[in-house]
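haha ok so turns out i had the wrong file open the whole time. this is the CORRECT one, sorry everyone. sequence first:
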Amino acid sequence: MMFKGIGRTFSTENDQQYETIGAFWDELAAKYGRANLQGLGYGWTNRSIEYVIGLIDGEIDGADRTVELPDTGWVTVRGKTADLGKIYEKIYQEGRLSNEIERFTDSGDCEIMYRR
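then structure:
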């Protein structure tokens, strides 16, 4: 599967990626609608994460990154965005991820697909 979108590198120091990636989502959601977007996290280091936001269907204007991802081996978890911290805490109990795809709605639902 090919994931195309607008990419940025975010610092993970002091967990600041949650605020900065959230602002990135807000910026693109204002233009495309939150429910039409999906975000890909990959390439973690001790200090940063690569993150790309693209459209669920179609190609986002200004796409500057294409990431090839495996078609199989994904685990899907659904829940409430308000519980995102708890969802990730449970996911990370089993170890680091190689990729994650996040989808959110304005009504507070989320879907996380991940691979180790």
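The helical segments are 17-32, 84-92.
again sry for the mixup
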